[in-house]
Amino acid sequence: MIPITDTISIQESELSESFVRASGPGGQNVNKVSSAVQLRFDARHSPSLPNDVAVRLMRIAGKRLTKEGVIVIVAQQHRTQERNREDARERLFDMIRQAAVRPTPRRPTKVPKAQRRERLETKKHRSGIKTLRRSKPGWD
Predict the structure, then answer these.
(1) Is there a contact between 64 and 41 (Cβ–Cβ < 8 Å)?
(2) Where are the beta strands (DSSP E) in the chain?
(3) Residues 40, 45, 51, 54: what is their CA dihedral angle, to the nearest 10 degrees?
(4) What would the pLDDT profile of 86-121 be if each residue is shown by its tens digit?
(5) Is 38 within 8 Å of 60 (Cβ atoms)?
(6) Residue 84, H or E segment
(7) Which domains does the chain have, with CATH numbers?
(8) pTM for the complete prediction?
(9) CB of 74 closer than 8 Å to CB of 68
(10) What whole-number distance in Å separates Cα of residue 34 and Cα of residue 36?
C-alpha cells in the first residue's frame, strides 16, 4: 500500500509501468537504454479512490486521460530510469492529493441596499447631464 493522504492509499498492483526509450538528444546511450517511464493508473475503476475523488482526478488529468479512464503519465526528464520512475509516481500522487481536496461551494451574496441606491443615483445624475446636453438653447 502506498499512502497518499490520511484517508487514501493505493495498492502497488493498481500502477502499471512500462519503460521506453526517451526522445531527444542523449549521447551514446540514446538508442540502447530505455530510461523513460510510462505510468498508467486506472482512475475510473480504482477501488482505492472514493467516487468524488476519482471524478475530480479525471477532470484534473485533462489530456493525460484516455477514453477508458486510464491516466497515462510519461516521465523522461532525468537520465536514469529510477529517477524518471519516482518523478512519474510523484506527479500522479500530487494529482490525487489535489483531487482529494473538496472544493468549497460558492455562496451567492446580495448587493447591499446602499450600493444599489448609490448606483441608481449615479445613473440619474449621468442621465440628467446627458439630457442637458441634448436640449437646444432658446434664442428667440
Answers:
(1) no
(2) 2-3, 9-10, 15-20, 36-42, 70-75
(3) 10
(4) 999 999 999 989 988 998 999 999 999 999 999 999
(5) no
(6) helix 81-100
(7) 2-100 (3.30.160.20)
(8) 0.69
(9) no
(10) 6
